[in-house]
Specification:
Layout lengths: L4 E6 L4 H17 L2 E6 L3 H7 L5 E6 L1 H11 L6 E5 L9 E2 L3 H10 L2 E6 L2 E6 L7 E5 L2 E6 L6 E7 L2 E8 L1 E5 L7 H4 L12 E6 L9 E3 L5 E7 L3 E5 L3 E5 L4 E6 L4 E6 L5 H11 L3
Parallel strand pairs: 1-2, 1-3, 3-4, 4-5
Antiparallel strand pairs: 6-19, 7-8, 7-18, 9-12, 9-16, 10-11, 10-15, 12-13, 13-14, 15-18, 16-17
Helix pairs in contact: 2-3
Length: 280
């Protein structure tokens, strides 16, 4: 792929991201590369600009990256993250590496890695879905602000898995397996795989801690009892749900294409490096 047009999605609330956007624009002008920029949270602007774009570069942390993913799930364009956050599991470079990373894009020194995302639906009282959404990391069904557990009936296809009395349930992609699912006791999967991880959050007297599900299967979670409950999509979008509602999660057929520049740390090395940065 020859890179002729680059988009930059950035977090406008971070001054460093705006400064980096200006640096990137100047770099592109000097080299005659067409470029555009838009806030990562402005889905409409991103979707308008993405057609004809060869790669979109995200300037920000993981939250900024997850917002930009919503656009590339609609318009299939490879995505690359430049980390300005604290950890940045989804990024392949740090802010000081911006120009070298752009040079590698122009030189074709990169590969594309496919990542599986999740498609979710909310089915009010089990009726046909009225709300659909996409997540790269995870979809969480959980209690609300009050410290009261919820009771959730979970099925895999037509098989009843368990009824959990818990703080909630995480359905994670391989990419998201390093996040909330892992904190709740789930395994870390290779991000290039295609599986779903189903993990209860603080399950009460539950014999099932976490399971790995085929991408051909559908996970359904019905709220049996709750004072209040919500669905959290990638930790950035919370939607209230009611007793009797069903949340359905499946593998998204179209993958998200990550740009991996030459020399970038392999996933397991990146994982070790990022974990070492976490506070003890």
């Amino acid at each position: 792929m020859t890179v002729r047009r680059i988009g930059f999605a950035y977090n406008p609330t971070i001054e460093e991201a705006s400064e980096l956007r200006e640096r990137a624009a100047g770099w592109c002008r000097v080299r005659g590369v067409d470029q555009w920029a838009a806030p990562a949270g402005d889905l409409d602007a991103l979707v308008r600009q993405l057609p004809g774009t060869d790669v979109i570069v995200v300037l920000g942390g993981d939250g900024t990256f997850l917002r930009a993913v919503q656009a590339v799930a609609i318009v299939d364009v490879p995505i690359l993250g430049i980390n300005l956050g604290k950890i940045g599991f989804l990024s392949k470079a740090e802010a000081h590496e911006l120009e070298p990373m752009l040079e590698k894009l122009l030189a074709g020194e990169y590969v594309l890695r496919e990542r599986m995302a999740l498609a979710g639906d909310i089915m009010p009282a089990g009726r046909p879905a009225t709300t659909a959404f996409i997540a790269l990391n995870d979809i969480v069904i959980a209690r609300g602000a009050l410290a009261r557990v919820v009771r959730l009936a979970v099925t895999i296809d037509e098989s009843h898995l368990a009824t959990f009395v818990a703080d909630g349930l995480v359905v994670s992609s391989p990419t998201g397996s390093t996040g909330y699912s892992f904190s709740a006791g789930g395994p870390i999967l290779d991000p290039g795989g295609r599986n779903l991880v189903v993990t209860p959050i603080a399950g009460y007297l539950s014999a099932i801690r976490s399971i790995v599900v085929s991408p051909l299967q559908v996970v359904r979670c019905r709220v049996l009892d709750a004072h209040e409950a919500l669905v959290s999509i990638d930790g950035r979008d919370d939607r209230p749900i009611q007793v009797g509602d069903v949340v359905e999660v499946r593998a998204l057929e179209q993958p998200i294409r990550f740009v991996e520049p030459k020399g970038a740390l392999p996933f397991w090395d990146l994982l070790r490096t990022k974990v070492e940065l976490l506070p003890s």
